[in-house]
Amino acid sequence: MIKHHPSADILIDFAAGTLPVAQAACVSAHLNYCDCCRGSTEQLQSIGGVLMEQLVPVAVSESVLDSILARLDEPVPLSFIQQRVRHRRVDLPGLLNRIINGDFSQLAWKRVTRSLSVSHLQTGDDQREFALYRIAAGGNIPNHRHGGAEMTLVLEGGFSDELGTYHPGDFVFRDASDVHAPTAIDGEECICLAVLDAPLQFTSWQYRWLNPFLQLQAG
Ligand SMILES: [Zn+2]
Description:
Jelly Rolls, 6-stranded antiparallel β-sheet, 3-stranded antiparallel β-sheet, globular
């Protein structure tokens, strides 16, 4: 049973197509688990369609049609998520689908601490980090803050923090002011999809030396 969902504002932006592509991918992955949010999104898209039909048409130049047709040859967003493996970019077609379906077999993981590994993926959104976090059973991500918003979707296992406990399909949003230390529930490894406006910044003195390393990995 999914208990944690995107806010109405996030769903409205998603339905309107105005969410940044990396965040849209995270919300889309949540909809894969959540009938409730999928129904809400379909309703919002219907409302958006009705509102569009009521707009008064405005004449545009012919170059607008040309520029739209030219974009038909561009890759579909997220159809090719990339990963950098040993300084090479590797195209992984359909990776998002495989991740949502629990297949993490082709990912390259970087160990950050004894309990935490990270797999950074490229989505074409240079403003955001899109990564999988793997936390060992009972392990934690050290206390950290964010330089911006953080979206997290649990894919396997579960974790808890100061505000709750989260299981597969649960969606968690934290803003820049939040400091927390997610801990994987006992007995099961936790794998999450995370979209960050800026790399994590560990706040406890034992782990602060890792911050430059995290920022390098996000590039
Ligand atoms: Zn939901």
